[in-house]
Amino acid sequence: MATRTAQLLRACHDVEVTRILLVDDHASARRSIRALLEAAGYDVVGEAADGRSAVQQARELQPDVVLLDVQLPDIDGFEVAARLAENGRAPKVVLTSSRGAEDYGDLIHDAPAQGFLAKDELTGEALAQLLTS
């Protein structure tokens, strides 16, 4: 399995998808996800705790990927994804939640996002697979 993960991460790195902005309103979740992503070889370049900060940091930091929690205290992740898509050089957006994709129905499918990963399924390999699909 380690070989498969390494291949997927190399694929991500080959297309320069390494810089990640992490957006989650729970500090403990951000810490855990940051540690997981950095251990998998990703470069977490910033963190945001709400939607407005996420949009601002995405513009300033220009990450390759925004790992975006759907439920935020000000504007939800779907609206953040839409605002990021309006930007000329929009990053890839991966939506995430502690709830399953089925709880959001067509909202995930209709969002300008690369895809969705439930937080309990989030691994470096799962993210790499989604980003290279």
Label this structure with key terms:
single chain; 133 residues; alpha/beta; Rossmann fold; 6 helices; 5 strands; globular
Detail the topology: elements first, then pairings:
Blueprint: H1 2-14, E1 19-23, H2 27-39, E2 43-48, H3 51-61, E3 65-69, H4 77-86, E4 92-97, H5 106-110, E5 115-118, H6 124-132
Parallel strand pairs: 1-2, 1-3, 3-4, 4-5
Explain briefly what this protein structure is.
The protein has helices at 2-14, 27-39, 51-61, 77-86, 106-110, 124-132, and strands spanning 19-23, 43-48, 65-69, 92-97, 115-118.
For the record, the count of structural domains works out to 1
Note the total helix count: 6
Roughly what percent helix? Answer: 40-55%
Beta fraction: 15-25%
**What is the CATH H-level superfamily?**
Response regulator
**Backbone CA Rg:** 14 Å
Write down how many β-strands occur, each being a DSSP E stretch of 2 or more residues. Answer: 5
Biggest sheet strand order reads 2-1-3-4-5
Overall shape: it is globular
CATH topology: Rossmann fold
Question: What can you see in these coordinates?
Answer:
The protein is α/β, with parallel strands linked by helices. The chain has one domain: Rossmann fold (3-Layer(aba) Sandwich), CATH 3.40.50. It has helices at about 1-15, 25-40, 50-60, 75-85, 105-110, 125-130; strands spanning about 20-25, 45-50, 65-70, 90-95, 115-120. It has a 5-stranded parallel beta sheet with strand order 2-1-3-4-5, with helices on both faces. Strand 4, helix 5 (about 105-110) and strand 5 (about 115-120) form a beta-alpha-beta unit. The protein starts with a helix and ends with a helix.
